[in-house]
Amino acid sequence: MTAAKEVAAELGTALRDFLGGYATPVVPVEDGERVWSRLCGELGLAGLLVPESRGGLGFGAAELVAVAAELGRAVVGGPFVPGAVAAATALSAVGTPRSDELLEGIAAGSPLPTLVHVPFASGRRVAASTAADGALTLTGTVGPVLAVPPPCPVLVPADVAGSPVLALVAPDAPGATLTPLPSLDLSRPAWRAGFHETPATVLADGVTAAEAIRRAEIATCIALGAECVGVAGHALELTVDHAKTRHQFGRPIGAFQALAHTLADLTVTVEVARSAAAYVTRCGGDERSTHTLAVKASEAAVTVTTEAIQLHGGIGFTWEYPAHVLLRRAHSAAVLAGTPDQHRRALFALVDER
């Protein structure tokens, strides 16, 4: 086992042990922010991808996959994906004194900046304009913004005369609004960000901005894909345990051939998703392996959690049981990561380039 795999395994075990202290297999929604604060303080997860030179842990794809899978398994809320993953990755690619200052703040435990999530391959960016003195202002709406109070700095992919810009908006900037959006996943609140001639600071432009946004998009897809792997695995565990303990006609329901075959198929589905996650870690998180993970993991999570609800019967729909919570996280993460068809097309395009 390589050093990176050993560290990733240790991180996953530490997270599993920490989160295993809850009475239910998932973290209650109301405890999500408190749990995230503890994870940052005790395990330093906010600085997971922040370079060591800026006070962070300096980890890569293997550790990201291990951590995200455990957070997905327990459906932990908090700003991990938009802040510790997307924003930290984008800032690391910028390499300016201001971006370095923000990275050092992330590692030190300051409120996480959050990157406005742009749906995969959409190319959506907020319109921006520059005044004669070079000042930048933003006008438009974009979302969802996956963050939680208190307000934090927002990184916005913007467009100035057809050229990409990565802009930083202060939490109290005039003309900036955050409108709550309905969210299927109650542990992950979402807002729509609106801007009207809102002053912003240019962190990067041109090729640098495009590369920072691209890297953040890849890291976000890896994190959400790994979450889906954790969700699918947990849903399968719950379903197998239920099939062993729930009796009908004097036998465990898992002994009936139809259910046994279904569980076998779900096991294969989960193992394929786990293999895709291992492929990402082996490749260091390149685009090809990321698209593969996004396809296999999102499909696995949706398929397994849907079947889990059905195989649990009525109890699967109750608030007291975590099956429906896992279902919500699966559908939410699958949408945010981009649809499987989008990632297939991107993967085919990469193959054609060869």
From TrEMBL:
Its cofactor is FAD. Keywords: FAD, Flavoprotein, Oxidoreductase. Residues 222-345 form the Acyl-CoA dehydrogenase/oxidase C-terminal domain. GO terms for molecular function: acyl-CoA dehydrogenase activity; flavin adenine dinucleotide binding. It comes from the Bacteria. Residues 34-108 form the Acyl-CoA dehydrogenase/oxidase N-terminal domain. InterPro entries: AcylCo_DH-like_C, AcylCo_DH/oxidase_C, AcylCoA_DH/ox_N, AcylCoA_DH/ox_N_sf, AcylCoA_DH/oxidase_NM_dom_sf. Belongs to the acyl-CoA dehydrogenase family. This is Acyl-CoA dehydrogenase.
